Amino acid sequence: MDFSLKGKIALITGASRGIGQAVAIGLAQAGADVAIASRKLPDLEKVAEQVRKTGRKCLPVAAHVARMEEINNLVGKVMAEYGRIDILVNNAATNPTMASAIDVDERAWDAIMNLNLRGLFFLSQAVARLMKEKGGGKIINVSSIAGISPDLLPVYSISKAGVIMATKVMAQQWAQYNIRVNVVAPGLTKTRFSEALWNNPDILKMAMSRTPMARVADPEEMVGAVIYLGSDASSYVTGQVIAIDGGKTI
How confident is the model at residue 27 (pLDDT cuts 50, 70, 90)? Predict the structure, then answer.
């Protein structure tokens, strides 16, 4: 029962597809009522239908978490519906460029950092203030093994390394409020977000040659670690990075 999320309220960003969708459904199956966010409401409604089939409640909210006013609107809507947030999963991310570090422009840098790091931090801050009032909570940030070791996406790698350090800072400072903050760092996962990588035969061959398990992950394989970190089973775990990568980082 330590792994149960029964009676908990979870907010998942970037939940219209891929890892976010899998996490939303997985947390509901573990007992949580959920709120899901991304930029397009019609895509969220499809996920909400799947969540409700588990017997749990689901609130879809269109929000671009790179924008402060939309962060505040998102949090306000979730609080109005549920009255609290017990678990926050920061999954929303972008990467509009594969340009090298010597070629990438400021516009691409800003787009990546504003969502992947700035938005993640300020949504976490807003939710942590509410968690503090309610006696605690859990924040799970989705980074990447690209944040541990640089890969083909240089600015994305920098942003995801920033997510790991932001997590450690939050964990250190917010433990006193009974807020635990941890990271899951997926390896190459079969989502639309990463399709340009796993659908490229040369890139895929290179990635698999460095991955002991020699295969691409499915989004659902990220869910178990998120349930663990969001539940009481991980009650003494904070500030940690769990790489879910088929062994690539070794």
Answer: very high
177 is catalytic: no
H runs (alpha helix) in the chain: 18-29, 41-52, 68-82, 106-113, 120-134, 154-174, 195-198, 201-209, 223-230
Q: Is 61 helix (H, G, I), strand (E, B) or coil?
A: strand
At 35, is the secondary structure helix, strand, or coil?
strand
- Indicate the length of the chain as a whole number: 250
Catalytic residue among 156, 177, 228, 236: 156
C-alpha pair distances (Å), 202 with each of 8, 197, 198, 199 = 44, 9, 9, 9
Q: In what order do the strands lie in the sheet with 9-13?
A: 58-62, 33-38, 9-13, 87-90, 137-142, 179-186, 241-244
Residue range 99-114, pLDDT digits in tens:
999 999 999 999 999 9
The one-letter amino acid code at 181 reads V
pLDDT in tens, 131-184: 999 999 999 999 999 999 998 899 999 999 999 999 999 999 999 999 999 999
- Integer Cα distance of 122 and 189 in angstroms: 26
The three-class DSSP label of residue 5 is coil
CB count, 10 Å around CB of 109? 16
Superfamily of domain 9-189+218-244: NAD(P)-binding Rossmann-like Domain (3.40.50.720)
